[in-house]
Design brief:
single chain, 97 residues, mainly alpha, 4 helices
Length: 97
């Protein structure tokens, strides 16, 4: 496998996981604290305001590269497994259309 195909595969998985988190956020059996953290992570990822500004060399960009994936991983652990599996299936089915 070459590097480009690995990047494409990783991007595809990230898209599915992101959409699955969105579906889980809207799922009635997802706990409120998982929904709250999901909203915070998504808001931080798309917000133009950062905790550590990007103009600070290395640290600013590194914060985004660490905080968003770490928050995403934590949200995925908070969502019940059966709910997450259902949402992943829906995400894959929707994205194949």
């Amino acid at each position: 496998m070459n590097v480009i195909s690995l990047w494409k595969q990783s991007l595809r998985k990230l898209q599915v996981e992101t959409y699955a988190i969105y579906l889980a956020y809207r799922h009635p059996r997802t706990p409120w604290y998982a929904k709250l953290l999901a909203a915070i992570v998504i808001a931080y990822a798309v917000s133009p305001i950062d905790l550590i500004p990007d103009f600070i060399p290395v640290i600013g960009l590194l914060a985004d590269l660490i905080l968003v994936p770490l928050g995403t991983a934590l949200v995925l652990k908070m969502i019940p497994r059966d709910v997450l599996a259902e949402c992943r299936q829906k995400a894959v089915a929707t994205m194949e259309l």
